[in-house]
């Protein structure tokens, strides 16, 4: 697989993370400037942000959970030349689930929908790791 094909899903995940960051920051800034939140009420990560700011910030924070394992796997698979077509297809499936998860997180925040999307992305990522580990140890 080409370098671009392997890295494009990773780049999309990175872009998602930055979009959420640059969305959460102004929400929090507005909450502080408007007086809806006082600095001393959030200084130690107390959960005192308005609901919308919390919703987007939580989605942003979630990008540092499962996606970290995706980033590591992508880089290691690239370096070891184990990132073939199956890897790339599964990477895109993972990223689509992450995009859908983030969308639900910042819109309806329906846990009955969000939870299965998170679970599906976790299963896809676990399968990716299992395939990668198998390829490393079977030297295929």
Summarize the structure in words.
The chain has 140 residues and is an all-alpha fold. It has a domain at 3-18 and 58-138. The chain has helices at 3-34, 51-62, 66-79, 85-106, 111-138. It is elongated.
Concise account of the structure shown:
The protein is an all-alpha fold and 140 residues long. It contains 5 helices and no strands.
Secondary-structure map:
Elements: H1 3-34, H2 51-62, H3 66-79, H4 85-106, H5 111-138
Helix pairs in contact: 1-2, 1-3, 1-4, 3-5, 4-5
Tally of helical segments: 5
Work out the radius of gyration: 18 Å
* Helix fraction bin: over 70%
> Approximately how much beta-strand content do the residues carry?
under 5%
The number of E-state strands comes to 0
Overall average pLDDT: 94
Measure the end-to-end span: 15 Å
- Judging from the principal axes of the Cα atoms, what is the shape? elongated
| Biggest pleated-sheet summary | none
Oligomeric state of this protein: single chain
Structural class, from helix and strand content? mainly alpha
């Amino acid at each position: 697989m080409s370098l671009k094909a392997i890295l494009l899903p990773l780049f999309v995940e990175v872009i998602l993370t930055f979009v959420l960051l640059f969305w959460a920051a102004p929400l929090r800034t507005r909450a502080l400037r408007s007086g809806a939140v006082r600095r001393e009420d959030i200084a130690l990560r107390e959960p005192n942000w308005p609901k919308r700011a919390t919703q987007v910030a939580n989605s942003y924070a979630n990008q540092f959970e499962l996606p970290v394992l995706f980033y590591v796997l992508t880089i290691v698979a690239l370096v070891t030349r184990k990132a073939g077509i199956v890897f790339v297809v599964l990477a895109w499936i993972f990223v689509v689930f992450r995009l859908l998860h983030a969308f639900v997180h910042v819109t309806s925040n329906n846990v009955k929908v969000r939870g299965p999307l998170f679970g599906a992305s976790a299963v896809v990522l676990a399968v990716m790791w299992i395939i990668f580990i198998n390829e490393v140890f079977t030297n295929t």
